[in-house]
Structures are given as C-alpha cells and as structure tokens.
Amino acid sequence: MTVLDSRPEVPGESDHDASVEALLAASGAATIGDVGQGRGPAWLDAWLTDRATDVVAWRRHIHAHPELARREYGTTELITKLLTSAGLRPKVLPGGTGVVCDVGTGARCVALRADLDALPLTEATGLPFASTVDGVAHACGHDVHTTVLLGAGLALATADELPGRVRLVFQPAEEVMPGGALDAIDAGVLDGVERIFGLHCDPRLPAGKIGTRVGALTSAADLVELTLTSPGGHTSRPHLTADLVHGLGTVITSLPAVLSRRVDPRSGTVLVWGAVHAGEAANAVPQEGILRGTLRTADRDTWRILEPLVESSVKALLAPTGVGYELNYRRGVPPVVSDEESTTLLRAGVEAALGPDALAPTEQSSGGEDFGWYLEHVPGAFARLGVWSGEGQMRDLHQPTFEADERALLTGIRVMVHTALAALAS
Description:
Blueprint: E1 4-5, H1 13-27, H2 42-64, H3 73-85, E2 91-92, E3 99-103, E4 109-115, H4 142-156, E5 165-171, H5 180-186, E6 195-206, E7 210-212, E8 215-216, E9 220-229, E10 233-234, H6 244-262, E11 270-278, E12 284-285, E13 288-297, H7 300-318, E14 324-333, E15 337-338, H8 340-354, E16 359-361, H9 371-375, E17 380-388, H10 407-425
Parallel strand pairs: 4-5, 4-6, 6-17, 7-16
Antiparallel strand pairs: 1-2, 2-3, 3-5, 7-17, 8-15, 9-13, 9-14, 10-12, 11-13
Helix pairs in contact: 1-2, 2-4, 2-10, 4-10, 6-7, 8-10
C-alpha cells in the first residue's frame, strides 16, 4: 500500500480542543440519545457512554470547517490526531488528504469507508456551528460520515480482541469527477480486503433507521461537455457560415431523444443539460459555444456503452450543420451495486446494533456515488443512514438548508462496528 506517514503530533492541538469546547458551549447541547444502548458489546456501550459528547464535538467541528475536494487538510489532520491518540497508526494518502488505518490484527480484513469533502455552496441552516468558510458547506452529510467512521474506529480500538482487521478508509474528493475513490484504490486501500461497507445520509429516513437494498442503490453518472466552433458571421447570411446556435439547439433537443431510442428504456438512462453558453450579440453568429450536462443510468451494462453511443450520435447530428465540435466525455462513477451476501451481513449488523425494526427498504436513486468504484474490485454493500428528525420539512441533500439529526451519529457508529464484526465472523 502506497501511503505517506502522518505526523505523530499535530500542531495547535490545544487550539483545536478550545475550539471544540467553544462549539459545544455555543450550541448548548452535547447529549444525544443512543437507541442501541445496552445491545453490546460491552466495550462499545462503554465507549459510546464515555465519548458521545466528543462524537458530537468532532462532527460540529468538521461541519464548521468544511473543505473542498482534495483540500481536506484540516479534516485529515483531525482524523490522524485522534486515531494516533488511541494508539493506532493512521497513514495519509499520497495526495496529502485522506487517511487509511487498520484496527486489529490477523490475516482477514474488511473495510469501512467514509468521504471527507464538502460542497461549494453557502450554508443557510442558521445552526450555531454552521460553516465558517464562505461558499463552502457540508450539505451532503460527509461531516456525519467522517465522524461515524472515526467513532467506529476508535470504539473498535478499545476491544480486547477482534476476529481480524478492520480497515478505516477516509476518502477525499467524493463530490468531483474523477472522484477520490480511484486515488484511494490506486494507493492500495483495498489490498487484502475481503469486503467493504459504507453509509450515506438520507434525509428521507428518520434517525434510527437504516435503508438497505440488494442490487443497484445509485446510478452511474457521467459528465458530457461539448465545445462547438464556427467561423462566425452575420445572422443575415447564415448560409455563408455554420450556424453554431442552431447546432447547439440540435444537440440539446435531439441527443436526449436519440439516446432514449438507442438504449433499453428500463435502464433509467437520462441526459439532462445543466449549462449552455454562446454569443452575446443578437445579430452575430458566435464562433464558440459550450454545452454541459450529466448522463445517468441505473444499469451497469448500459453505462459501459454510453460513451461510444454519445460520440457517434453527436457526430451524426452535427454533420449536416457544418459546425465543428470537440467532445469531452468524462466517465464519472459506476452504479453502487450491493451484492446479496454483503447486504445480508450489513443487515445482520443493523439488527445486532439496533434491532430488526431499524431496517427499512430503500429505492435506487439517480444520484451518483463513487463508492461504486470499490465494488468494481471487491464485494460490499452500501446503506442509507436516516438523518431526518421526524419533525418539520425534509431538507434534501445538496441544499443550503440540509440538516442532519445528530442521533444518527451513534446509530451509524453502532451499525458500522457491528457490520464489521459480522463480516469478520462470517
């Protein structure tokens, strides 16, 4: 595994501790309910009883100090400091952000993964621990994911003995394409791993519920960027040039229609344009235009054929117009496909952690998640962590007003710990 040693001592540790205490004081709350209390193991119950306040503090600190993809230096430093203080040996990934750390010993190894990065948007929750960084916010719950995995790892480190190793993968850059999962895999985080598991916040599920599903849970998501070119000219003489705006319009309306007739409609394939730019003057044919959108599909086999299909379709659509083009097709992420055996183990972990009533069905979404790259290499399962308080409006992911019920922190820790134990015992 190619990694960089983390620093044994983190500068400014006392400043960090003071800031955490200030966050707790400002929020006026540090106690959250633990719906799994008493379900064991005894070392997990004891750790959560003793450290629940710290768990909340870590989450609020990360939430207040969000960092964009591949810039998660402060979050990485916090993780390495806390894991090192527990006697573990965390390693920073080669890019300088992200952490991998094994807990326990033995030949067998299962992995648990969380993502670290925030989104480039302005938070509007009004929380006392809201983002302190202009234009950056944890609006997808990655602060929760990071804290859950951190808590799970630190709790596992208190066990007298584990039936194998649990690898903690704190992954940077989930929100961009190509995502940080590819970097983590290249660094060797899956070396020797039998299975991998992860959780993602779901604001449609109440806190205390875990949504699971065998098969595809998310969709593939690719980026389509098309740059069109023309000699330009006067709009009174379009026949003497190549009408670039007409070419843009042709692709905008016709490419989604062509794709809908060339792929199986049951695949849930959809192309949606998000940006189009061309020209300024009403009487001038522009020389350049740019079109950007996302292409998603719920089917892995369909995903594999989309790039050549888009290339041939764009060529055919623009050929009669005389407009030049350059296609930048970026494959994003494959669907997250949880296999049956891994999902059974995850469900066993949920039942052991919280009881059978915590399990909830969930549907496949059209969103993308780069956890799917791990599942191209090893089996595993992904689940949805309920974070809705049960009161008021459900605030969706990627909204400036997204909030997570902090009871989900202890719920997630218990589920991750029990899932790892179930997988190692299988």
